[in-house]
Amino acid sequence: LKDVTVPEKRQARFECLLTKEVSKILWTKGSDILTPGDKFDIIADGKKHILIIKSSEFDDEGDYSAEVEGKKTTAKLTVEGIRLKFLAPLKDQTVKEGETAHFEFELSHENVPV
């Protein structure tokens, strides 16, 4: 396995190429066994075995391992944050007491929680 660095919310992919075909290998993150589902896809294609981490988050960072027949290989996942920029900054507001002030700004990325 090779270390992987991906931007937050993107797919991460680890590939393991074996010298012979096996039906299945064990994928782990630390001591946790990984199974296919909402978070992970596991693909076996002959000698090639692939772990896909969907929509990577900072909590997904760590060491991932593939193990088969007593042999083990490990690589690290690093997740990089989105580089946000203010395209339109906040503007000063003057309102009378009891009135509502409205502040607007524009970010370089959509659908970012603020």
Would you write up a description of this structure?
The chain has 114 residues and is mainly beta. Helices cover 0% and strands 44% of the residues. A five-stranded mixed sheet has the order 1-8-7-3-4, with no helix packed on it. A three-stranded antiparallel sheet has the order 2-6-5, with no helix packed on it.
Summarize this structure briefly:
By secondary structure, the chain is mainly β. It has no helices and 10 strands.
Please count the helical segments: 0
* Largest sheet composition: 5 strands, mixed
What is the topology, as strand order, of the major beta sheet? 1-8-7-3-4
| E-strand count | 10
| Helix-strand topology string | EEEEEEEEEE
Radius of gyration: 22 Å
What is the percentage of strand-forming residues?
Answer: 35-45%
Quote the average pLDDT: 91
Judged by helices, strands and strand pairing, the structural class is mainly beta
Spans of at least 5 consecutive residues with low confidence: none
Oligomeric organization of the protein chains: single chain
Shape: rod-shaped
Question: N- to C-terminal separation?
Answer: 36 Å
Helix content: under 10%
Helix and strand layout, with pairings?
Elements: E1 4-7, E2 12-17, E3 26-29, E4 32-33, E5 40-45, E6 48-53, E7 62-68, E8 71-80, E9 86-88, E10 106-107
Parallel strand pairs: 1-8
Antiparallel strand pairs: 2-6, 3-4, 3-7, 5-6, 7-8, 9-10
Keywords:
mainly beta; 0% helix; 114 residues; five-stranded mixed beta sheet
